[in-house]
Amino acid sequence: VRILSVVGARPQFVKLAPVAAECARRGVEHVIVHTGQHYDPMLSDVFFRDLGIPDPDVHLGVGSGGHGAQTGSILGAMDPVLEDRRPDWVLVYGDTNSTLAGALSAVKLHLPVAHLEAGLRSFNRRMPEEHNRVLTDHAGDLLLAPTEVAVDHLRAEGLGERAVLVGDVMIDVLYRVRDELADTDAVLEQLGMQPGGFSVATIHRAENTDDPARLGAIVAALQEVDHPVVLLAHPRLRARAEEHGLDLDGGSLTTRAPLPYPALVGAVSQARGVITDSGGLQKEAFALRTPCTTVRTETEWVETVELGWNVLVEPGPALRDALARPAPAPTAAAPYGDGHAAAAVLDALGA
Ligand code: UD1
C-alpha cells in the first residue's frame, strides 16, 4: 500500500508525526507532500526535526495568499504529483486550506481519499475551517474520526458508512513527547517563568485577530491577569496587532515567538493555565491536566468542556473571571484514545 500524506500547516505536522512513524515501523511506502502553506522555520522545519518526521518528498511551495488563491495554487500543483505517484490512499489531515485542496485534487483524479480528524464540527459557518472540514468529509472515501461525537456528526450527515473511529493521533505524539521530555527547566528559563506561576496563551484565529475591537478586548484582559501570561505569538497575530496599532506587551502579558513542540509540551505541563483559540491546544492542555480557557463561542472538542477542564468565554470581564476560577475536579477520562490512534489509522487503510 502506498500512502501519500498532504500537509501544510503547523498542526498537520504534529498529526503527521505518529502516522509517519507507524508507516516506518510497518515498512509501508509513505510519500509526504508539504504544500508550503506554513513556511516560517518555527512553524514548519522545527516540527519535522523535533518529531523525527522524514523530510517531505515533494514541496509545493505555495506560501501565503487569500483563501481562494492559496487553495487554488495547491490544487494546481497537486495534479502532476498525484499523476506521478499514483498512491493507493491520499491522506489529508484536519481542517486547513491544505486539507481541502489535497482532498479535492485527489477526488478529481479518482484517487481514494482518507480524512484524518473527520467529523469535527463547530457549526460556525463563519470559520474557514468549518467549510474545509465539511467539504473534505463529503469528498472523502474513508473518514477517520477521533471521537464518538465526531462519528455521530458524520452519521447525521449521512456519512456513517464511511466513518471509522480511530482515536486522536495528537494524543499519540503528545504522550511520546511528554515521556521523552528530559526536563522542563530550560523552557521555563527561556520564558523567564516559575513552575505553576504562569499561563500560556495563543491567539491566531481570524475571528479573534481581524476585528480590532475584539483583539483589543482579548489583549486588555490578558494584560490584567493576576499572574504572568506568556503569549506565543503566531505571525497572523503579530501582523494584525501591528495593523490595528495594538501593543501586545504590557501589564501581565509578555509575547514570545512560537515554541517548538517539545518546549510547548514542557511549558503547558508546568503552566497553571492555558488561554487559547487553537483546537489542538485545548486537547493538549486537557491531556496534561492544565485548565484551559478558550476564547471562542464554540469548540469542536466538547469533551474538554463537559469534563470541566475547558471553558468557552467572550473577551472582556468573562475572560478575567474564567482565569480566576477554581481548579477542576480530577478525572481519569480519556475521550481522545490511549495514544495508539496511528496504528488504528494504518489498520483502517489496510496498510
Ligand atoms: C492556518 C489554518 C488554521 C490553523 C492554523 C495553524 C486555514 C484556513 N487556517 O491558519 O486552521 O489553525 O493554520 O497555525 O488553513 N504566515 C507567515 N508565515 C508562515 C505562515 C503564514 O508569516 O509560515 C502568515 C501569512 O502570510 C498570513 C498569516 O500568517 O498573513 C496567516 O497564514 P495562513 O496560512 O493563511 O493561515 P493561519 O492563520 O496560519
UniProtKB/TrEMBL annotation:
SUPFAM superfamilies: UDP-Glycosyltransferase/glycogen phosphorylase. This is UDP-N-acetyl glucosamine 2-epimerase. Keywords: Isomerase. Belongs to the UDP-N-acetylglucosamine 2-epimerase family. The keyword Ribosomal protein does not apply. InterPro entries: UDP_GlcNAc_Epimerase_2_dom, WecB-like. It comes from Ornithinimicrobium pekingense. It comes from the Bacteria. The keyword Isomerase applies. Coiled coil: none annotated. Residues 24-349 form the UDP-N-acetylglucosamine 2-epimerase domain.
